[in-house]
Amino acid sequence: MAAFREEKDESFHSQHAPLGAFASFTIGLVDSPGGFGHALRGPARQNVYVGFRAGRKSAWRLLPFFAATKSGEAAFTGEPSSTRPPKAKTLRPRDYRRVLDWASDTWRADRERFGFSLLSPFGETADPVRMGKAEARRAFSPHLNGWIEYDNRRGKSPVQLVFGLGDPDSVFHPLTDSGLALPGFALGTQFAYATAPSKLVEMRQGFDVFAPKYRDFRGLCVLGGESGLIFTVPAGTRRRFPLVLAFFAQGIVTTGHPARYAYTRNFRNLEEVVAHGLDQRKHYETVAEVRDRELAATSLSDDQKFLIAQATHSYLGSTQLLCDDKAPIWVVNEGEYRMMNTFDLTVDHLFFELRWFPWAVQNTLDRFAAHYSYVDQIRLPDGRAVPGGLSFTHDMGVHQAFAPTGHSSYECDHLRGCFSHMTMEQLLNWVLCAACYAIHTHDVAWLRKHRSTLHACAESMRRRDDPDPGKRDGILKHDSLRGGRDGAEITTYDSLDVSLGQARNNLYLAVKTLGAWIVMEKALKLLGLPAEANAAALSADLVAQTLVAKFDHASGTFPAVFEADNQSRIIPAVEGLAYPLFLGLEAVVDRHGRFASLLDLVGRHLKAILRPGICIDAISGAWKMSSTSNNTWWSKIALAQFVVRRLFPESLSAAAKAADRVHARWQRSAACGAFALCDQIRSDTGVPCGSRYYPRGVTSILWMES
Amino acid sequence: MAAFREEKDESFHSQHAPLGAFASFTIGLVDSPGGFGHALRGPARQNVYVGFRAGRKSAWRLLPFFAATKSGEAAFTGEPSSTRPPKAKTLRPRDYRRVLDWASDTWRADRERFGFSLLSPFGETADPVRMGKAEARRAFSPHLNGWIEYDNRRGKSPVQLVFGLGDPDSVFHPLTDSGLALPGFALGTQFAYATAPSKLVEMRQGFDVFAPKYRDFRGLCVLGGESGLIFTVPAGTRRRFPLVLAFFAQGIVTTGHPARYAYTRNFRNLEEVVAHGLDQRKHYETVAEVRDRELAATSLSDDQKFLIAQATHSYLGSTQLLCDDKAPIWVVNEGEYRMMNTFDLTVDHLFFELRWFPWAVQNTLDRFAAHYSYVDQIRLPDGRAVPGGLSFTHDMGVHQAFAPTGHSSYECDHLRGCFSHMTMEQLLNWVLCAACYAIHTHDVAWLRKHRSTLHACAESMRRRDDPDPGKRDGILKHDSLRGGRDGAEITTYDSLDVSLGQARNNLYLAVKTLGAWIVMEKALKLLGLPAEANAAALSADLVAQTLVAKFDHASGTFPAVFEADNQSRIIPAVEGLAYPLFLGLEAVVDRHGRFASLLDLVGRHLKAILRPGICIDAISGAWKMSSTSNNTWWSKIALAQFVVRRLFPESLSAAAKAADRVHARWQRSAACGAFALCDQIRSDTGVPCGSRYYPRGVTSILWMES
Q1: What string of DSSP letters covers A105-136?
Q2: Cβ proximity of B121 and B291 under 8 Å
Q3: Axis crossing angle, helix B596-609 with helix B530-550, rounded to the nearest 10
Q4: What is the tens place of the pLDDT at every residue in A601-627?
């Protein structure tokens, strides 16, 4: 019963989002608005009215997707304006059952007779460069399908259903007014919702969609900020009504490099999207069903399935397929930060994108190589500046503003913590993404085009270890001078303490370097370059050998930083193994193979740290990335869990295994749930401290790897 | 001293707006954000930072255009987010002097050494149909000019100035990143601000523009939600730096009838607007200066001048020049309601538009005639429906959604109050606008094209009096059936009580009918139609004669409604006289002429009601439109004041004359001031109850008629 009650406290937004539209219809958080949003850093602020009532006189019962608002009427009538909730009973979590699945989100209530669902289908998607118009329309239509239903087969009187919206700052108009003969409403040229024509559907608009006082020649009051579709389910029948929610952003949407949404090539306007979405709904419903079945068929726990589903929803909401005059441009926006193609997220989205649309990875890598790369100098211990090598920027811009060539929106100078440069980190990320892309897709032709880049990356990796080959041990020891002489490189873990934040002599980055050399070796072999592949293998061996030597046998762990007697212990020690493991490369898959000694020590490290009070939070039971920081990032935990479960199952204590429950509860609770998927979370409280509305949780798709 | 202190309580937003962009940069309300907004119903929510500091170490002193906000930094660093005011001293109203002029708004502080000004120039503007591209660029550039300055001639150390913005939901980018080599920032493709290149200007962007912690390769942190320009005024110098604020909305912005901004034909994007605005600033500064001098040269009181200036600013913010493939489309949006070309506002904006851009009136009238007219039936006392005649809809749509042909967004059916139909009101409005336009501009050719419309209007006016010519007395007595048998026509005074709200047998509408016949007579004469002109004259005489008979000699006033022993007394009894008076038509200009009896009685009416407790509010001293309602509309008061002062000066008691002070104080105070110009105001408290952010106050331009 305790578990049941806990479930009933759930309150979380999910981003319902088509692929590539950087748009979401966000609902789910109890007693909270949401609705249509484009390019936002969090949920929109529209009231969403979804519910039912038995007969025309009884009270509406609504899902809790709204808050009390001021009526717009008073401004016209000159009366004092008062805040009011709609005249309806709001269903509490105990009154409904919500199932968030991989590509659907369904609410059921009234003994399962009432149902409402929004679909976010996604699947294998061909490269838009090679798509015909019809295929592109299907693949990148900026709409969502959904449905609302009631089983009134045993009812004696008709039941009414509602799907409606209230926007405090805007006014919807009937779709018929913009030339589309469907029951539905649109907000300007941007957002719309509709259903199929039916005698059982009534359009409503007014200051209060549940008590319309004013009706024009067609029964609406189009000044009203609330609109809705009222469906009637006759007694003795069961009806499901389709819903379509559409988004449209016309024209140039980016600066720096002017681009528009790719879908604007296939749809002239919002109304065409609505019509297409309704017309083609069977297709999208089928895709969503296939995805849902796929997740259901895994042996994952319900908590794990939920986490994957919630993460995928937020990822889709951050995706953006643009195009310029020449070609498509793939962007994943970084959740609340809205940085564009943050490279240290690209490397995490990699696994999801390689499964469904590997061209997105290629597109991003090409752009990094062409526009967002640079060559730096590094600092020797004696202070001299010497050539470093090739690397890549942290991101490509922020909030739809492409950054100048060779620069990110994030990296600032003269810093040793957050906002500093991530030269080595992003260098590894290009190598890892490129090798994983080419090996996974067998796209050797693409790899060949980037052969010189790959060589330059290898050289750059080695020089950052030490410009003098004789002094190399495989580990980053020289900071880039790009951030100035008083700067120091950081890692993606920018908001953590030194255990994960400092790049130099960092365990996380060292193992990631190892992973990069392993996949590089494989990539170079694919290119038919045995000498270079062998050199990469030697570099891998060198890192591994050095790492073995860094093991602290007294504690049975690796220190997080090989400097200053660091005492932190970190889970992302295993992160770098994820890539060769994902690719099934024998070097790491075999615990008793080439890297047996290192893998054995990593296993011991994990066993030692996956304990309450070290890297299992003593209060909450959650995994925490570092023993010395209570800021933990769930997407990275999910990535580590993939490695740990597959390679080091012996290290999983009962406490470690039980943690999915905690992680899922966090995301289901209002603190995280207010911003859909949250990544940076306080490990003791489950309260988010950053990375809200965030795409990176799709690392969890690795759990589905068989 | 009392007056002085009162002045220092002033706190009001003003809309700084270019002509036709439906956009404002709104600032002025004390301790309140504002900034760039497009198509909003009220002020935007950006912090605006404007101020100065002596030297680089002392505290900034800022005008109070911002509120404490949460820093965006915490989301990145994982630290708890706290609300903070900027590290600056906020100037209080007593610390600065603000002068809102007709086309400028200037703040001075620090013993007049510091100055900041935003210009909203406007002037005689040719018909866009006949404009060349260069002229159109000048006339409709969606930008504002401004400046910031400091007189440091006696200073011993440099003074710094700031103009900056903070947006809680968005991130600006440096203009250089979107290809414009000017110091400045832009928000997407929509809003930008810039200054001229100078060694004395520094660009700033970060989480706190006053204490930037992070700097990239060019000294900015482009993730930060705050940006600004820092100007240095060297010791011993006086410097004024130009500012340009630009707006841009690309693509189709309306539905129903898809249209784009006319300026998009002359500017490709935001950056072109910024460059133009800076380049051509002398032109715009000159226009603004001419306007300011023009207002200053009048013999109006300071309060009257302020009211005209504030009203004009809000009017400009509601104007929108669109175009479709064929022609320009003029729209004035109705303030917070955003109804498009509300006809009962068009007739009020008439005087302003005829002065500066009469083609706007013509454009609107053409569109009403072509798309937003209808022919109705009217209800006889015995319930029979008989043909009524031609009339026009209340408006053309709402919130950029054009309504279906023949319908407004406002009018609903089966009502007897607010939201009912305004058939007679809008019929008179077309006649008044058309006649005033043609007579004022001598555009007889246009009038000739609408000859049949004019005839139909005349016929419709007469039939609404009575379909039987023998029963006519000149006054509306038959409600349109367009709102149903249970509906009744209302007037523009929709939120007032029956004294002004009911159309049938209404004094206000009767005098307006008289005014319409008088100007129609003149128009028909211009058309060379003496018989029709004579018939119009007879209709005018008939209304006047009936009105004379309605006078209540006991009270020395006209009842507001000629029904049910109505006891209300109203100021808008004189409104209908404004049009012939504006045109200088002898019929009304001469108190001893053709309508001497009626004018004499109107004078007595005014004298009787312009007294405290009747139509002067006993508490506040303001003019109130109706003795039985405390909802008063300042724009309509201004219109009535024009008539009263010109035609009935003997009725102006000392209390009536003193009221401008009250009306100005309302608009200068925070209750109204929070929404720039407010129109519907509680006459006892000065608190607005509707019509915020409102364009209609430009009726006050009539005060400038010599």
Answers
A1: EEEEETTTTEEEEEE--------GGG--HHHH
A2: yes
A3: 40
A4: 999 999 999 999 999 999 999 999 999
- Structure tokens that stand for B424 in this block: 């007679």
User: Rounded to 10 degrees, what is the CA torsion of B595, B601, B607, B610?
Assistant: -90
CB contact under 8 A, B222 and A400: no
Scanning every residue of chain A, which has its alpha carbon at the shortest distance from the alpha carbon of B412?
A: A216
- Collapsed DSSP state (helix, strand, coil) of residue A399: coil
Q: Calculate the CA B234 to chain-centre distance.
A: 41
**Integer Cα distance of A371 and B641 in angstroms:** 65
Q: Is there a contact between A251 and B253 if contact means CB atoms under 8 Å apart?
A: no
The reply to whether residue B413 touches residue A188, judged by beta carbons under 8 angstroms, is no
pLDDT tens per residue, range A234-251: 999 999 999 999 999 999
Residue A431 dihedral angles phi and psi, to the nearest 5°: -60, -50
Q: Could you tell me the pTM of the whole model?
A: 0.96
> Nearest 10 degrees: CA dihedral of B661, B664, B669, B675?
160
CA separation for the pair B149, B232 (Å, rounded): 10
Tokens of B689: 């109850």
β-bridge mates for residue A631, sequence order: A682
Residue positions counted in chain A: 706
Q: Which residue has the tokens 């008590």?
A: A211
Buried b (16+ CB within 10 A) or exposed e, A558-596: bbbbbeeebebbbbbbbbbbbbbbbbebebbeeeeebbe
Query: What is the enclosing helix (H) or strand (E) of B44?
Result: none
* Residue in chain B lying closest to A682 (CA): B78
Chain A interface test: which of B227, B255, B257, B393 (most A C-beta within 10 Å)? B255
Q: Which two tokens stand for residue A341?
A: 């193609």
Containing A201, the helix (H) or strand (E) segment is: strand A201-206
Is there a contact between A489 and A506 (Cβ–Cβ < 8 Å)?
no
In B, which residues are within 8 Å of A169 by CB distance? 40-41
Q: Which one-letter DSSP state was computed for residue B126?
A: -
In chain A, the domains with their CATH numbers are 25-293 (no CATH), 298-479+490-704 (1.50.10.10)
Specify the amino acid at residue B376: D
> For B218-258, what is each residue's pLDDT tens digit?
999 999 999 999 999 999 999 999 999 999 999 999 999 99
Smallest CA–CA separation between B209 and chain A, in Å? 15
Q: With beta carbons less than 8 A apart as the criterion, state whether A140 and A128 touch.
A: yes
Please provide the DSSP assignment of B83-103 as one string.
Answer: EE--SEEEPPGGGEEEEE-SS
Check pLDDT > 50 for residue A100.
Answer: yes
- What is the DSSP-derived secondary structure letter of residue B339? B
ipTM of the complex: 0.95
Name the E strands within B365-438: 373-379, 385-392, 397-398, 401-402
Q: Do B76 and A170 touch (CB under 8 A)?
A: no
Could you give the residue ranges of the DSSP H alpha helices within B563-690?
Answer: 578-583, 586-589, 596-609, 634-647, 654-657, 659-668, 670-673
Phi-psi region of B391 (alpha: psi -120 to 50; beta: other; left: phi over 0): beta
Q: What is the mean pLDDT of chain B?
A: 95
SS3 (DSSP) at B82 = coil
Query: Do the Cβ atoms of B250 and A252 come within 8 Å?
Result: yes
- For CA atoms B197, B199, B201, B204, give the dihedral sign: positive
Alpha-carbon span B364 to B353, nearest angstrom: 11
d(CA B248, CA B192): 9
What one-character DSSP code corresponds to residue B649? G
Find, among A256, A569, A246, the residue nearest to A405 by Cα: A256
Interatomic CA distance for residues B314 and B302, integer angstroms = 18
Going by their DSSP bridges, the two strands A60-62 and A88-90 should be labelled as parallel
C-alpha pair distances (Å), A52 with each of A95, A153, A238: 13, 15, 13
**Cβ-contact A222, B255 below 8 angstroms:** no
